[in-house]
Design goal:
The chain is mainly β. It is built from two helices and eight strands. The protein binds a DNA duplex through strand 3, strand 4 and helix 2.
Amino acid sequence: VRVDEHGTRSGIIVETEAYPPGDPASHARPGPNARNGQMFGAPGTAYVYRIHRSYCLNIVTGPCRSGQAVLIRAIEPRQGIDLMLEARRRATVGRGVVDANDLANGPGRVCQALSVDLGFNGWNLLGQTNPRNGLYLLPRRRRPSIDVTTRIGISRAREAPLRFVLRNTAWASR
DNA sequence: ATGTCGATTCCCT
DNA sequence: GGGAATCGACATA
């Protein structure tokens, strides 16, 4: 859930990738440093990094100092779809039109749609919700069926089955 | 100070 | 399916 002065945007996480301790593909691989420091924080902390023009949002899964996180690769938009479309258009100005079906199907697009940038690096996603400016998680009601595949866009440990996609969702990345 | 690379996206063929 | 965009972190000098 994302709340700011414009309103509330929310969605259901439908696609993730895990970057567990010891994973050669993980940013935590070299140990704590200025870039990946938040990965070694408490579970529920946001780890946000920049890749080319995009940002990617991860959730630390803890425990503290273990250096592991889950990348949010796609969400199914629920609330504030108009705001997401606006934010996506703002983020891609001068580079074509934003397809309403490509709202948040990709880790960079998730951050565009929810206006997540480096300012949320280290944010406590389990903390008190600030009604003016917030980003937080809510629990699922039921455990869904999930398909497991290999991860996308990495060069190391490509064969590891660590990508998780909600079964039959139409909102995952391609 | 300089060079390289990337957990991506978008446009073009 | 290929290449450019674009910038911060990190490694090297």
